[in-house]
Write a structure and sequence with these properties.
The two termini are 24 Å apart. The longest helix has 13 residues, at 61-73. The strands form 2 sheets. The protein has a 4-stranded mixed β-sheet with strand order 1-4-3-2. The radius of gyration is 15 Å and the shape is globular. The chain contains 3 helices and 8 strands; from the N terminus they run βαβββαβαβββ. It has a single domain, classed as 2,3-Dihydroxybiphenyl 1,2-Dioxygenase, domain 1 (Roll), CATH 3.10.180.10. By secondary structure, the protein is an alpha/beta fold.
């Protein structure tokens, strides 16, 4: 069994697509009409056949509440691995990304958390 797609809820699919592709550098893999919304997935530029990240609209009340409560509690919805967290932190700061946690050493890893501008906190981690 493999994880092939993982999803995050977003407030605005267009805004999320722009942030995740232009700011973070992920590559759009699918952008298919699905009723009033779209099925949008992105992949890492280093693993374009790897796990896809789906940008799911939060139009369902349960999805919206889930997203809002995680954000309010400061809980990241997912984690992305980076090779050099300090370089990635600087790169994202230069693109005006707002961090809620600067790179912080926790045991054998270093983590940081940022706001994706789409209703989520995202954690990055260097092992």
């Amino acid at each position: 069994m493999q994880i092939i797609v993982t999803s995050i809820f977003v407030e605005d699919q267009d805004k999320a697509l722009e942030f995740y592709s232009e700011t973070l550098g992920f590559v759009k893999k699918h952008d298919v009409p699905a009723g009033e919304f779209r099925w949008i997935t992105l992949v890492s530029p280093e693993e374009q056949k790897g796990t896809e990240l789906s940008l799911e609209p939060n139009n369902h009340p349960a999805a919206k509440e889930y997203q809002e409560r995680l954000f309010a509690e400061g809980i990241p919805v997912t984690m992305f691995g980076v090779a050099d967290i300090h370089a990635e932190y600087k790169r994202l700061m230069d693109k005006s990304v707002k961090f809620t946690m600067e790179p912080t050493k926790v045991d054998d890893v270093t983590i940081a958390v940022f706001d994706d501008t789409c209703g989520n906190l995202i954690q990055i981690m260097q092992q």
